[in-house]
Amino acid sequence: MSGVGTYRAAIAIGDTPIGVRCARQDFIRMLERRYAGFMVAPADAGIQLDIDIVEGPEVIADEDLEVSCAAGRWTMTRGDFSAEWDPEARRGRVRQEVLPYAIDAVLRIMHSLVLAESGEGFLLHSASAIRNGRAFLFSGVSGAGKTTISRLAPADATLLSDEISYVRLVGERYCAFGTPFAGDLGISGEKVVAPLHAIYFLNKGDRNRVNPVSPAAAVSTLLRNVLFFADDERLVGRVFQTACEFVSRVPVFELTFRPDAEVWNLIQ
Amino acid sequence: MSEKYIKPSRNIAARMLDDEMIVMSVRDSSVYSLNATASVIWGAADGSTPLREIVASKVVAQFEVEPEVAYQDALELVEELAREGILVVADHPIHSA
């Protein structure tokens, strides 16, 4: 606790810790449980979010997400939260219920914006895992098989996520970082990082096979699976350039697989 | 016969990957890939060089095709890209797309 009635936590996803301040201790405790393994000392957080907790009637969970930027400040609204974030000041404010879904969405949006602006990475609808020191991405829309391939992973694989992967350039190499964003498997990834060896776009089929993907198809499919919420042409162009750079450096394949563990024999 | 001038639209992002020019409309995130010939034409689309001159100097020389056939193919291509909104085609030099 720091200051009267203010509780603090910080969640480090990728290499970007985001600090959270809230007057409600139960909210901070909830974060500590949900993001266990990704918590760091609040003093390490370069970005700070103040959370205002509101109760029930103001919240309309079904409203669509809107993300926009005006005069350098981002505004994010959905039925269950509203948020503002000033990237230059590195401060933001979120108004939400005590439930975790809103802060989860805010964190995803903020990381997607920070990565887009950096031109060095993205969040991707993708499972990811490390094997023998090399990271692999398994990307696809809902139902493509992210959870299935994660469930079939051999015991020596380290799961980074079964749903949302964090990809960023480190030095000259793209790396995959673990995230706490869990899909149907319901298991948080490990907070570890490894250089990316390949990305596979997933399809379910009746036999296992790997096919190469042309650069144009790779960029197009990758962009469909990148998490990006903002209606901002400048940043969209930046994400495109990042996707092209990624495709020029990381081998891209299409992986058609049936749900048995043998598919992992193809992952190398 | 009037000259045609071409220039990429403002609301696109483009990048050469291998031998293909990849172009994205930042308005709707549609992605297009141009083959080698189309990529050469795209790369020379500066708004001030007539299309016929681009075809003669870049396409005919490099791809060993008949000049008039190459020009008609190029005309068809640029009109298609214009319909997609990623290229501006005009009867006069284009200073800003």
Features:
heterodimer, A: 268 residues, alpha+beta, 2 domains, 5 helices, 15 strands, 24% helix, globular, B: 97 residues, Arc Repressor Mutant, subunit A, three-stranded antiparallel beta sheet, two-stranded antiparallel ribbon, 3 helices, 39% helix
CATH class of the largest domain in chain A: Alpha Beta
CATH topology of the largest domain in chain A: Phosphoenolpyruvate Carboxykinase, domain 3
Poorly predicted segments of chain A: none
Which CATH architecture of the largest domain in chain A would you pick? Alpha-Beta Complex
User: Reading side by side through the largest sheet of chain B, how are the strands ordered?
Assistant: 2-3-4
Q: Please state the overall shape of chain A, judged from the principal axes of the Cα atoms.
A: globular
In total, how many domains does the architecture of chain B comprise?
1
- Identify the quaternary structure here: heterodimer
Tally of domains of chain A: 2
Strand content of chain B: 15-25%
- Helix amount of chain B, in percent? 25-40%
Query: What's the gyration radius of chain B in Å?
Result: 13 Å
| Overall SS class of chain B | alpha+beta
In round numbers, the mean pLDDT of chain A is 92
Mean pLDDT of chain B: 93
User: Which sequence of SSEs, written as H and E, runs from N to C of chain B?
Assistant: EEEEHHHE
Number of strands of chain A: 15
CATH class of chain B: Mainly Alpha
Give an overview of the whole structure.
The complex is a heterodimer of chains A (268) and B (97). Chain A has 268 residues and is α+β, with helices and mostly antiparallel strands. Chain A folds into two domains: 7-118, no CATH class; 121-266, Alpha-Beta Complex (Phosphoenolpyruvate Carboxykinase, domain 3). Chain A contains five helices and 15 strands. A seven-stranded mixed beta sheet of chain A has the order 1-2-3-7-6-5-4, with helices on one face. In chain A, strands 8-9-13-12-11 form a five-stranded mixed barrel. Helix content of chain B is 39%, strand content 25%. In chain B, the strands form two sheets. A three-stranded antiparallel beta sheet of chain B has the order 2-3-4. Chain B has a two-stranded antiparallel ribbon with strand order 1-5. The two termini of chain B are 23 Å apart. Chain A binds chain B through residues 214-217, 219-220, 223, 233-234, 236-237, 240-241, 244, 247-248, and chain B through 11, 13, 15, 17-18, 20, 22, 24, 26-27, 29, 31, 33.
